[in-house]
Specification:
Layout lengths: L3 E9 L3 E6 L2 E6 L2 H14 L3 E5 L4 E3 L1 H4 L24
Length: 89
């Protein structure tokens, strides 16, 4: 079973994304489809956090889990009270 953790998007490049999870940062390479899915997710939901599979060092996007922030009360307002680096205010 994979180790999954939520992280905040710190940077996006052309072929990768840097995700911050507390004091840990991880650079994740993205293929064209994952980049399109991530960009669509950011535009449609204005979410700044993503689910990361730490074992495989890849993003787990909503289209894989069939979940939305609005339907998951545990994730609603997750980014409230944190700065751009994911640190508590």
């Amino acid at each position: 079973m994979s180790q999954l953790e939520f992280g905040f998007i710190k940077e996006m490049g052309e072929t990768e994304v840097v995700v911050s999870m507390g004091k840990q940062e991880i650079e994740i390479p993205l293929n064209d489809q994952d980049m399109k899915d991530l960009q669509q997710l950011l535009v449609e939901t204005d979410m700044e956090y993503v689910l990361v599979d730490l074992d495989k060092k890849r993003l787990v996007l909503d289209n894989e889990l069939d979940m939305k922030e609005i339907n998951n009360p545990a994730l609603k307002d997750l980014d409230v009270g944190v700065d751009e680096d994911g640190n508590a205010l």
